[in-house]
Design a protein that fits this description.
By secondary structure, the chain is an all-alpha fold. The chain is 69% helix and 0% strand. The chain is elongated and about 50 Å long. The N and C termini lie far apart (41 Å).
Length: 77
């Protein structure tokens, strides 16, 4: 039982770190003139578009930067 709890905590930490890297990539996105593409509010909203479970499913296939790019291209709802 302890192993499951440790694995679950590790997975949650990895997902949180992955989401933080996505958030940073969103915040770092710039237009051709070097201005931020997104406001802080937009960064926050976009970074919450995917659930933890959805992020876990995609972590093996997409870098945080790729996810950020996808989110920027899809825009805000």
């Amino acid at each position: 039982m302890l192993n499951f709890a440790q694995n679950n905590t590790t997975r949650m930490e990895e997902t949180a770190a992955y989401r933080a890297r996505i958030t940073q990539a969103l915040a770092d996105a710039r237009d051709a003139n070097g201005r931020p593409l997104l406001t802080d509010e937009q960064v926050k909203k976009l970074s919450q578009q995917f659930s933890d479970e959805e992020l876990e499913d995609g972590m093996l296939f997409n870098t945080p930067e790729e996810v950020a790019e996808l989110l920027i291209e899809s825009g805000l709802e």
